From TrEMBL:
Residues 7-164 form the SHS2 domain. One of its GO terms (biological process) is cell division. One of its GO terms (cellular component) is cell division site. This is SHS2 domain-containing protein. Gene3D superfamilies: 3.30.1490.110, 3.30.420.40. InterPro entries: ATPase_NBD, FtsA/MreB, SHS2_FtsA.
Length: 177
């Protein structure tokens, strides 16, 4: 199979597993080149109830997508849903540290890192943080703060969390190598 710059996603659901492989093009975005859909076995309401059955469903979905695309999956983003996935709202705040007081990409990283310090229960794991809005010195609703002047900069985020046992049960089901 050919090696290319690709992006793979696997949606692990209760009724089916869908794998999508897309070719990444520098100028034109992405183009779907392979899809594999199989009935989901070993899952109930988004949770793994039989590792071997779940693993086989995922493996078969990936295999079908590889065959239709003629590409070998090397890594993938896994999508999961269910009652074991939830979200929390949080805020991250940073202060100006330079004389020019301009928001730079590094400040975006700092404010998002600050927002990731959300307190979550020990049985849950932080999946990712999605910025909902930015504010600069009290001006709310800022969409792209890079290049703006600030003394105090913050972001409102949604933090997606998942029960830890869910991720540890799903990991052995994902094909490797």
């Amino acid at each position: 199979m050919k090696k290319r710059s690709t992006l793979t996603s696997i949606d692990v659901g209760t009724t089916k597993v869908c794998t999508t492989i897309a070719d990444i093009d520098d100028g034109d975005g992405i183009r779907v080149i392979g899809v594999g859909v199989t009935p989901s076995q070993g899952l109930h309401k988004g949770l793994v109830v039989n590792i071997n059955d779940a693993k086989e469903s995922i493996r078969e979905s990936v295999k079908k997508a590889e065959q239709t695309s003629n590409y070998k999956v090397e890594s993938a983003y896994i999508g999961v849903t269910g009652r074991h996935v939830s979200s929390l709202n949080n805020r991250g705040v940073v202060a100006v540290t330079r004389n020019d007081r301009l928001v730079r990409p590094d400040d975006l990283r700092r404010v998002l890192a600050s927002a990731q310090s959300v307190k979550i229960p020990k049985d849950r794991k932080l999946l990712h943080v999605i910025p909902r809005s930015y504010a600069i010195d009290g001006q709310v609703g800022v969409k792209n703060p890079v290049g703006m002047h600030f003394t105090r900069f913050w972001t409102e985020v949604m933090a997606a969390v998942m029960i830890c046992v869910s991720t540890s049960s799903l990991k052995p089901c994902i094909p490797t190598g």
